[in-house]
Amino acid sequence: MEHLQTLDGYFKENREEHLGQLKEFLRIPSISSLSEHKGDMKTAAEWLMNSFNSVGLENVSIDETDGHQVVYGDWLHAEGKPTILVYGHYDVQPVDPLNLWTSAPFEPEVRDNKLFARGASDDKGQVFMHVKAVEALMKESGSLPVNVKFIIEGEEEIGSPHLEKYIKENKDKLAADIIVISDTGMQGPGQPAVCYGLRGLTGVQIDVQGSQSDLHSGLYGGGVQNPIHALAEVLASFRDQEGTIAVDGFYDKVRPLSDEEREAYKALGFDEEALKEEVGVAELFGEKGFTYLEQTWARPTLEVNGIFGGFSGEGIKTVLPAEAGAKITCRLVPDQDPDEIVEKLKAHIEKHKPAGVTVKVSEFDKGKPFITPFDHPAIQAAGRSYEKIYNVPTAYTRGGGSIPIVAAFDEILGLPVVLMGFGLSSENFHAPNEHFHLENFDQGLRVIGDYYYEIAGFSKDDLKK
Amino acid sequence: MEHLQTLDGYFKENREEHLGQLKEFLRIPSISSLSEHKGDMKTAAEWLMNSFNSVGLENVSIDETDGHQVVYGDWLHAEGKPTILVYGHYDVQPVDPLNLWTSAPFEPEVRDNKLFARGASDDKGQVFMHVKAVEALMKESGSLPVNVKFIIEGEEEIGSPHLEKYIKENKDKLAADIIVISDTGMQGPGQPAVCYGLRGLTGVQIDVQGSQSDLHSGLYGGGVQNPIHALAEVLASFRDQEGTIAVDGFYDKVRPLSDEEREAYKALGFDEEALKEEVGVAELFGEKGFTYLEQTWARPTLEVNGIFGGFSGEGIKTVLPAEAGAKITCRLVPDQDPDEIVEKLKAHIEKHKPAGVTVKVSEFDKGKPFITPFDHPAIQAAGRSYEKIYNVPTAYTRGGGSIPIVAAFDEILGLPVVLMGFGLSSENFHAPNEHFHLENFDQGLRVIGDYYYEIAGFSKDDLKK
């Protein structure tokens, strides 16, 4: 365990410098979904490229795709040893509503040992930790115990529309033995988790058009369909009042939870009262017959992410609006297929479309759900690395979120994927006041460093899926 | 009919100057509902005061209320003759969505003999016509055939919250024999109408709160209520799929249409095909069992005027939003009571409120519905004035819109109200590209001038309600 002490010393000594560098990275507003941030995306990619070069990664490149760029780097001098492919993303979510942020989203600020900024935990902070782990090992011994390849993309938050093609075109360059991703959460403060499954994602935007321009609700009201009302009827038809999704065939391919899984989740002792307090609701609401963990890990959802139409300013405007729209996404679980689900959504919308309006449905990008056996040696090794640093048993969990590209890695490269995250569910990913608990930054750096040694103990054959 | 020729000559001679003045008035962005336009409201009131003074009105004043100001002026030297109280408003509706305007809303522009600007027809243009009618009569003969009082307010578009108090406190100052309002539409191009009834207005804003801040739809989705979904369920519950409002007791006090009224409306030969083309819809949609005119003149409505919640920008944001809201207004018909209807709405919302969210309901300002006998001499006289200028029979109609203060005038002053409007339903009141057909500006000026002579032919007793 000598390397643990070495890592510990290095990270303590350089903590302020590392945090300063991370803040630099977080100041770049790399919002992939908004076209006005195209320049910032390039700046973030360049920042990362420079960072790769400075820690000793080689063959560093910014690779073009049909969308935002991919940043690549490797170190391949551990002859005969396994190769770890580290995947992450440098893009972030939009930041509105801006007025709910205590400090500006792109002005990182440490308060109470938490680093506040968009991207602090999802995912710039965690990508940065892998880079610094490489730096620490290189600085101390001049080499790494395993081979590593980094592939950090800029389109995760918009569903990785171009990465699949990139992986296909770069199969040889990306060849490895396992894939490691740090973009998931821990089970709770001080409670590490290795995630063995993720939900997939699919979605549609519904645009409802009534009259060709807004109408006076007095002159026309009562005789012309109101697109907001029509849209509300469609949205309300998507589920019953108990939260079960009412789209024909939606649950057809859902893999039922095994008794073992349900028992394992129960054993985690999830605190629903604490959750209610954390998110500020008096009661939870979800599909009947399932616990909260089951609902969010192993059951699919249909959520309205946004709605718009008519007048939403101060006061009153008695308008009969011309248009209304809603953005809808579904979280999918094995073995639902995103394309099939979109077809079912479209059929449902067509069936429930009210009279007097036209309805346009457009598709968002899709990601398949993913699951991997939790007894794989690379998974178990991750659990051991956590336990060495956190001194508690690691939980083996599934995640409610989606990293759409995980399923693509699985399909194209055929490699086991290890999801070892350092975020906490209270850290407001995708919401105002995103932050990262710095104790997990500090401990996570050591976990990652140790994990490289753990994997060095296996042969390539051991790690075969 | 000598005065008609005189008026004709005067308005022709001064047309360009008059249009120039009206454009000045329209350039002032007097949006009463938006607090940032408070200064513009004062500018518009002052512009009107100067205009009153310049045409020879007396006792001109800007009167304070607890909201926006009222502009008053009179001319009371027609001894023994009736007094006409002219009511109108100098405030206008908001202008969004701005990108749908062909020319800027506060940069008036004449295209194809139509004047485009916010307020061109609703109601600055029509207020201006009354001022210019006074000017013409004063310029030509040094006096008016009747007494007139002008009361032009700045809060009509937000429901006239302070005018009722103003009328009560100024009963003597406002004493008159009839009230004339030009804020309604004609029956169609070249088809004048006198309106004998108006719908009332009431409304609520529904604010739905789920979690205390936006949540990641992957991590929490499926286990926490979505406020947009909850709101959609409430909105969908407001009516059945045929357009009938499903709020308990909503129709209880609705005065049924008489056979005579239904016949009279039928006789107007309303062209539903032309309407569909005008507003750009493939089919009309309204309460079953009623014609379009009946639906919009004599039946109540419940319209969602605006909805908001979650992410509405470009692309996708997989958020489980914390809040959603909707603005709802009802058009009311005799003898519905706005306060009673709000209570029924609140009871309905309480009953249909989904689990897992809190719902706040706030009230908008209210206006009662109004109706007046169409055989009153002041109504019939208005019909004659139109017929002299337009050379076609006048239609006696009801209006789907609301001038909430009309019911208050009726109740407090006990006077017959004559609604003689010059707008056309195609003129985009409350919507982008509001405009005013200048042929109705030209002919309307003469109708108003003639109407003052018509009323001069009656004794005060003739006009008693």
Topology (SSEs and partners):
The structure is a homodimer of 465-residue chains.
Chain A: H1 2-13, H2 15-26, H3 38-55, E1 58-63, E2 70-75, E3 83-89, E4 109-111, E5 114-116, H4 124-141, E6 147-153, H5 163-169, E7 178-181, E8 193-198, E9 200-209, E10 215-216, H6 227-237, H7 259-267, H8 272-279, H9 292-297, E11 303-310, E12 319-320, E13 323-332, H10 338-352, E14 358-363, E15 370-371, H11 377-390, E16 395-399, H12 405-413, E17 417-420, E18 435-437, H13 438-456
Parallel strand pairs in A: 3-6, 3-7, 7-17, 8-16
Antiparallel strand pairs in A: 1-2, 2-6, 4-5, 5-18, 8-15, 8-17, 9-13, 9-14, 10-12, 11-13
Helix pairs in contact in A: 1-4, 1-13, 2-4, 3-4, 4-13, 5-12, 11-13
Task: Describe this structure as you would to a colleague.
The structure is a homodimer of 465-residue chains. Chain A has 465 residues and is α+β, with helices and mostly antiparallel strands. Chain A folds into two domains: 2-198 and 369-456, 3-Layer(aba) Sandwich (Aminopeptidase); 201-259 and 285-363, Alpha-Beta Plaits (2-Layer Sandwich). The first copy, chain A, has 13 helices and 18 strands. Chain A has helices at 2-13, 15-26, 38-55, 124-141, 163-169, 227-237, 259-267, 272-279, 292-297, 338-352, 377-390, 405-413, 438-456, and strands at 58-63, 70-75, 83-89, 109-111, 114-116, 147-153, 178-181, 193-198, 200-209, 215-216, 303-310, 319-320, 323-332, 358-363, 370-371, 395-399, 417-420, 435-437. In chain A, strands 1, 2, 3, 6, 7, 8, 15, 16 and 17 form a nine-stranded mixed beta sheet that branches. In chain A, strands 11-13-9-14 form a four-stranded antiparallel beta sheet, covered by helices on one side. In chain A, strand 1 (58-63) and strand 2 form a beta hairpin. The longest helix of chain A has 19 residues, at 438-456. The radius of gyration of chain A is 23 Å and the shape is globular. At the A-B interface, strand 10, helix 6, helix 9, strand 11 and strand 12 of A face strand 10, helix 6, helix 9, strand 11 and strand 12 of B.
